[in-house]
User: Fold this.
Amino acid sequence: MDDSAVSAERVRSGDARAAARLISMIEREDPSRLAVLKALHAYGGKAHVVGITGPPGAGKSTLTDKLVGDLRGRGRRVAVIAVDPSSPFTGGAILGDRIRMQRHATDDGVYIRSLATRGHLGGLSRAAGEAVRVLDAAGYDDVIIETVGVGQSEVDIVRIADTVVLVSVPGLGDDIQAIKAGVMEIGDVFCVNKADKDGAERVVREIRAMLETAVLNGAATRFTPLFEARSALRGADGSAPAATPNPGSTEQGAFHHIAAQAPGHPNLEIPPVVTTVAETGEGIARLVDEIKAHEAALAATGFLRSRREANLAWELGRGAAQRVLSELERDESREALTELARSVLDRDIDYYDALDALEDAMTRTRRAVTTA
Ligand SMILES: Nc1nc2c(ncn2[C@@H]2O[C@H](COP(=O)(O)OP(=O)(O)O)[C@@H](O)[C@H]2O)c(=O)[nH]1
Ligand SMILES: [Mg+2]
Assistant:
């Protein structure tokens, strides 16, 4: 198949080769991808997008492999995008992952690929967003994105995923290093992997303590508004949680954690902290239960919509900024910039008038382009 054979129809019909081709076009920013992406637009919005993030070596790929197996057992079609900002187009670290996930290779309900771009800053983020939309329209029920994080990553998984799983492990030197202040804002489900190693229980306690402190201090967290909305729902009819996706489970598995009975805080809820041994599969079912419980809570409260709205608004802003940047990289723009710089140096105009002139010129160009 060559690129010209890549059509929205083929992608939608579940043709994995067409999806793969299209994602390659996305990686190299091929302008002809846009027509296909536009044609796919109407069919998106159904997949549950799950981000798996955490430090390198935490076991994210091993976990992802096991998550795929578990989700398949639940009858779901699953796509995985492994994003490795450290290996532009070489797939270095991804190679091992590919071998690890080989067992899914013959399962046409599973699609796995790595994603890399040669491009500039922000390119990976754009590519990841576009790839998710392709796989969503291709009918995968779950789209999992694995990437290293947090903070140093170019891919802002929080802006792409409905549900973010933050993976931690014992023995990271200063144990909790990777999930220090600020990072609490990004996790929906917390996973302590390598529970077969010493110190896992301590990491769990530390994460829980950090989450409790954040809630007690009224710190900005990703989960508090969701929990509040859900408890309001629960209060409305005085019955059980509206989102009980895992009815058989005890308080352990129901995305519902009373952390402490602090004075004035009878319902101090924090997100689930799940321990796993990805290598053996221990704890994986529970992790999937929690991920799905989170999705159900998002859907029941209307937060799925508002989260996606916020994410898309952010992505649109990024997209617009990138358009402006590429406009400025054109030769004509460079010349105009140099010209303006001269005027500023010669004290003909000041720096801010130069900026205004530039903005004016760009608006005019854009208007000329769009009305042409
Ligand atoms: N002991 C132990 N090792 C694990 C576990 N999960 C993954 N590993 C190992 O940790 C290493 C890094 O795993 P990988 O999935 O590549 O981590 P990633 O960089 O976060 O994707 C590999 O050698 C895995 O076999 C676990 O639960 N326990
Ligand atoms: Mg990995």
